[in-house]
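Quick one:
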Amino acid sequence: MPGLTIARPFPEDVPTHPLSVVDYQLVRAGDEDEVAKLWKAATELGFWYLKNYDIEDEVDHMFDVGQDIIALPLEEKLKYELGDQGFPFGYKVAGAQVMDNRGTRDVTEFFSISKDDALAWPTPIHRTYPSPVNTRMEDIVRPFVQKALEINRFLIDVFNDKLGLPKGTLAAFHKVEEHSGCIARIIRSPPHLGNSEEKPFLAAHTDYGSLTLLHNRLGGLQVLPPGSDRFYYVKPLPGHAICNIGDALNIFSGGILRSSIHRVVPPPKNQAEYERWSLVYFTRPNDSVILRAQSEHSEQIAQAVANAPPGKFETGETAQEWTSRRFRTRRVANYKGPETWKENAGTEDTPIPQQSYA
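Output:
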């Protein structure tokens, strides 16, 4: 299915929110200016572009794997459906999730591959997979997972040091050998005609985990800048990933690292005529890690927590419970009304602007 994931020109007259461009190789080399740029982006908006990170070949091949998965007959894909209990690995059929407090159904489908399964292949840890995954696990899927994991873990180490935490504090929450909700996810959204912002593909939210690495060839991602009541598109840049902070790092840091509200809507203008494909790697803490601010290990974090509402960064949940709850409460089968939707909340502080999905 050639051409499905190629880039289309982003309309120049569509307002976008600028992101800092961070050079991964300079950060790895310890360049102080580049590290400062990364830190500023992570603490102010929580989003940035990443370049020079040596994963583009794997990304291209992962899009091919994703297209082969989605092309399978529906009855075959449904053998790997996530279910309604908060299980994060496998296939999600379009319409299985709610998008707002009125129970509006979503229109996208995706497939999520567990980090644990990829690294332990051919021994299943969480689940088995369809043939397009199995036949390319060793030469495509596992190399992508390993590289994406290495990138995100290195950036987490940088944040660890900038937060004044003892060496390895955050790394200990993200041990490769321990089970976690880390996933590689391929997402397909259908072409869309009409007002691009009428019905988002993914409703306004914060990410569940620690760090997200996104590749998309069309527009559609929108961020809500701090203090704003308006969402802005983020323009995809060829050869760049879009990174963002998730809830776990926000909590560990006492809110210093920002987990910003964002959503995915149909691509702008004529881009909306095409299927939108994206590839995401979500790094999440190990399942047993309690999500709480690391105040006792960092004066910076302790001060941030002291200035926050009491208990804000003491969730009382493990990373697995946090992720499972948010997956579970998005499922149509579990939706009982507006109160159910409130259970889906993450770390978002800002009231999400009222959305009307036609």
